Amino acid sequence: MGLFRRLFGNGAPDGFTGSLEPDETVIAFTGVQGGGHVVVTSLGLWLPGPRRIGWHLVSKVKWEGALRVVEAVEASTEGPVVLLEDLPAQRFAVDDPGRVLRAISQRVEGSIRSRERLESPGVWVLRRKIPGRDGVVWQARGDAGVDLEAVREAVAPLVSRLAG
User: Fold this and answer.
1) How much is the pTM?
2) 55 vs 35: CA distance, rounded Å
3) Which tens digits make up the pLDDT trace of 79-134?
4) I need a labelling partner for 91 at 20 to 30 A (CA). Which of 39, 47, 68, 139 fits?
5) Sign of the dihedral through C-alpha 35, 41, 45, 51
6) What does the alpha-carbon distance between residue 45 and residue 47 come to, in Å, rounded to a whole number?
7) pLDDT value for 9
8) Cβ proximity of 135 and 53 under 8 Å
9) Closest residue by Cα to residue 36 from 98, 105, 108, 90
10) Residue 129 φ/ψ, nearest 5 degrees
11) What average pLDDT does this structure show over 26-52?
12) Which 8-state DSSP code applies to residue 63?
């Protein structure tokens, strides 16, 4: 642990029980009504529990009277492309969404190096940076109602290009 952290703490809010990595920097945070915190760091989004979602697995974040977070899981792979599926949205009534929402948006957008929309069947193909790692990862995520097999078929031409 560096001298700065020993003297001044890690920047996390009082009562935060997550275990930050040595090089993980707190960017913003807000309390959650009912307990816990939403904490934005250089490596991901900490939600009450606490647990961290890496920026490359945050699909959507939106303000709808509460902070709405959609997390993706790595469901499968097709060659070098990771196929994602969204989990049900989680909602958090937070004390002060402004700074946190801006920081989340910046981090999610900052992780995306390129994106392409495949209108039929409705698939996003992203090339993303994973914080704390070298290189990028290819990801594909179908719209609501698009099954994993349709996503797999939609990215087949990309997989062939990347292999060849």
Assistant:
1) 0.89
2) 23
3) 999 999 999 999 999 988 999 999 999 999 999 999 999 998 999 999 999 988 89
4) 139
5) negative
6) 6
7) 53
8) no
9) 90
10) -90, 135
11) 96
12) E
